[in-house]
From TrEMBL:
Keyword NAD attributed: yes
Designated name of the protein: Malate dehydrogenase
Organism: Aphis gossypii (Cotton aphid)
Enzyme Commission code(s) on record: 1.1.1.37
GO biological process, alphabetically ordered: malate metabolic process; tricarboxylic acid cycle
């Protein structure tokens, strides 16, 4: 990319509630850096075009110098044309009482169509982040229908779960969240996910201590803490009557920023990525794993301690993803 040239960034579901927070953060340089200008590609469906018109007025009124233009469209071929990065947010959110996989039959077809469009129109090194639920399986389907783009370029968002877990640990310890490092989310962005602090640490002045030792309450860590993170999305829906948006947008920013700029030495983040058999996870699923990133390439962190307790949890969430994959393929082939 030539110095000073804008990158093209697509946000789907651009008239929705997550996009409303996300677009301003992208436009402000929070994802691709304060020097990187952007052309925003904003995709939504015809009934949402009036709202999107208003969002575009607000983009103008933000008066942010990094925004070199925007494309507002209902056409995937325009939305995905030559894009460098894709935030695939547009999909139906769940309502109270639903599991995310209940959205599968409604949402998965969107990701088939968008995979095909990415395949035809996007740059071959496009970085794709799927936010729309069920995020892991939607990312898998999107990648399946975009065979000319490397599978490594399709990821699903579990960063919100990581942020929730790190925040809960910090709160319990009375520390700032920036002191908590290397919490891992394994598996599906669903109630079977495993938020794992066995390998996480707490930074203290001049030293570092394991989260386990710092909290010193394995009963809490192995039951209430896990359940709270697994069901946090549902708790937000119950309270707000709408799913998380502000925190979801921030997590999407964190995910793409780290993919773009890299992780620091000795630290990792969680992303739903294509599994290669590491940690006994079946190959070919989009499964949340610990990754370190440099030169815009993620790498699965190897050698983390997996106890029998953890292994059972890893297997359970893999089983759910295998079932979702089968159901999604059936929906797409129907
Ligand atoms: N992975 C995560 O951590 C995470 C977190 C929060 C929400 N989500 C999911 O993100 C999705 C969006 O949530 P939201 O709160 O912004 O929903 P929303 O209903 O406010 O917005 C969704 C937008 O997508 C649009 N849309 C629908 N079909 C589309 C299509 N085919 N192409 C383009 N746009 C389309 C809708 O018109 C709407 O404007 C939901 O599926 C939600 O469950 C995921
Ligand atoms: O829980 C949901 O349905 C929305 C989102 O996936 C979340 O985790 O908040």
């Amino acid at each position: 990319m030539a110095e000073g040239e804008p990158i093209r960034v697509v946000v789907t579901g651009a008239a929705g509630q997550i996009a409303y927070s996300l677009i301003s953060m992208i436009a402000n340089g929070d994802v691709f850096g304060k020097e990187q200008s952007v052309i925003l590609h904003l995709l939504d469906i015809p009934p949402a075009m009036g709202v999107l018109e208003g969002v575009c007025m607000e983009i103008d009124d933000l008066a942010l110098p990094l925004v070199k233009g925007y494309v507002k469209t209902t056409e995937p071929e325009l939305a995905f044309k030559d894009v460098d990065a894709a935030f695939l947010v547009g999909a139906m959110p769940r309502r109270e009482g639903m599991e995310r996989k209940d959205l599968l039959s409604a949402n998965v077809k969107i990701f088939k169509v968008q995979g095909e469009a990415l395949n035809k129109y996007a740059k071959k090194d496009v970085k794709v982040l799927v936010v729309g639920n069920p995020a892991n399986t939607n990312a898998l389907i999107c990648s399946f229908y975009a065979p000319s783009i490397p599978k490594e370029n399709f990821t699903a968002m579990t960063r919100l779960d990581q942020n929730r877990a790190q925040s809960a640990i910090a709160k319990r310890l009375g520390l700032c969240v920036s002191n908590v490092k290397n919490v891992t989310i394994w598996g599906n962005h669903s109630s079977t996910q495993f938020p794992d602090v066995f390998n996480a640490s707490v930074k203290l002045p001049g030293s570092s201590k394991s989260v386990y030792d710092s909290i010193n309450d394995s009963q809490w860590l192995e039951s209430d803490f896990i359940k709270t993170i697994q069901t946090r999305g549902a708790a937000v829906i119950q309270a707000r009557k709408m799913s998380s948006a502000m925190s979801a947008a921030k997590a999407a920013v964190d995910h793409m920023r780290d993919w773009w700029s890299g992780t620091s030495e000795g630290s990792w983040v969680s992303m739903g990525v294509i599994s290669d058999g590491s940690y006994g996870v079946p190959q070919g699923l989009i499964y949340s794993l610990p990754v370190s990133i440099s030169n815009k390439q993620w790498k699965i962190v190897q050698g983390l301690k997996i106890t029998d307790f953890a292994k059972n949890k890893l297997d359970l969430t893999a089983k759910e993803l295998l079932e979702e994959k089968e159901e999604a393929m059936a929906v797409c082939n129907a």
